[in-house]
Amino acid sequence: MSDKNLKNTVLKKSCGCSCGCTPTENDAPKIMRIEWQRLITDEKTCPRCGGTEEELDKAVATLKQSLAPLDIEVTLEKRAISIEEFKEAPLESNQILINSRPLEHYVGGTVGQSQCCDVCGPEDCRTINVDGQTYETIPSKIIIQAGLAAATQLLLAKNGKSCCSD
Questions:
Q1: Which of 60, 75, 128, 145 is the most exposed place for a label (fewest CB within 10 A)?
Q2: Phi and psi at residue 4, in whole multiples of 5°?
Q3: pLDDT tens string 121-152
């Protein structure tokens, strides 16, 4: 296929909504940035952060596969926080941000806290509450739900408004 034919094929993609509009030549893939931070001390992390990491890896793989056809690139950055940072702000450990917003923003959740383990010491660690359920380890289904909500916002964002609103 020639470059010109490939370009025309790409431009014929629909935006994904019912309006049937097509992307412009200047449309570029959109980026969904997922950031996760957790306490690491002596090369160890707590069980809830370790569990969240496993769930996060599964969720990111699913989101990458699901959102690629929509030209949304999913990136993941994992960041360790020190014991000093943790003691200053323990609820920032095991926090997931999607496009700079906390995961709970996308799923109508709230942040809670509870006693954790020896790695975390006497500090209470972050939990999230979604639909009346408290999660210490954030399950992949909640991460995927938040990712899909964020993807919807990315797809609708075009000059600050939906592609369908003029």
A1: 75
A2: -65, -45
A3: 777 888 999 999 999 999 999 999 999 999 99
